[in-house]
Amino acid sequence: MASPLEGCVGSLRNSMQLLDSSINILAEGVNDFPRLGKVLQTTRHFELISESDLQIAQSALLSEIRPEVENLLKRVENYLDKLERREQSLIAKCDLNDGRLGRDGTGGAGARPSSSTAQRSTGKAMSAQQELRFKQLKQRKDRLSYAVETLELQAKQRERQLRMSMAAPQQLYDD
C-alpha cells in the first residue's frame, strides 16, 4: 500500500513546487505594481472643452476688449487731429512771421529810395514838413498792409480749422 501513497505524495510535492513557483512569479510581477500604477497614471495637463464653450468665451472676451480698443483708437485719432491742427497753426504763425519779416525788411529799405526817387523825379526839394508827412503816410500804408495780410492769414487759418472741424464729424459718420 505504500506505493500508491508514495505516488500521491510525489504528485502533491510536485503540485506544491509548481504552486510555490507560481507564487514567486506572481510576487515578482506584483512587487513593482505601485510604481507601475504611478507611471501609468494619466495626468490631465490640458482641459478639453467643447468648441461651443470656446466660441462663447472668445465672444465674451471680444465684447470686453472691443469697446476699450475703440476708445483708445478714438483717443489716438483725436490726439492726432489735435497735433495736425497745432501743426497747421504753427505753419500759419510761421507764414505770418515770415510775412512780417519780409514786409519789414522790404518796407524799411524800400521807403528811403522811394523818397529820394520822388525828390529826383519831381525835381523840387521837399520841405521837411512834407517829407515827414510822406514818411507818416508810408508808415501808415505799411501798417495797414501788414494788418490786411495778418487778417488774411488768420482767415485762412480759421478756414482750415473750420474745414478740419467739419471733416471730423463726417469721418465719424463714415466709420
TrEMBL record:
UniProt biased composition (Polar residues): 113-130
Recorded coiled-coil stretches: 66-93
GO cellular component, one term: DASH complex
Protein name, per record: DASH complex subunit SPC19
Pfam families noted in UniProt: DASH_Spc19
Keywords from the named record: Centromere, Chromosome, Coiled coil, Cytoplasm, Cytoskeleton, Kinetochore, Nucleus
Family per similarity comment: Belongs to the DASH complex SPC19 family.
Subcellular location: Chromosome, Centromere, Kinetochore; Cytoplasm, Cytoskeleton, Spindle; Nucleus
GO biological process: attachment of spindle microtubules to kinetochore
Region (Disordered): 102-130
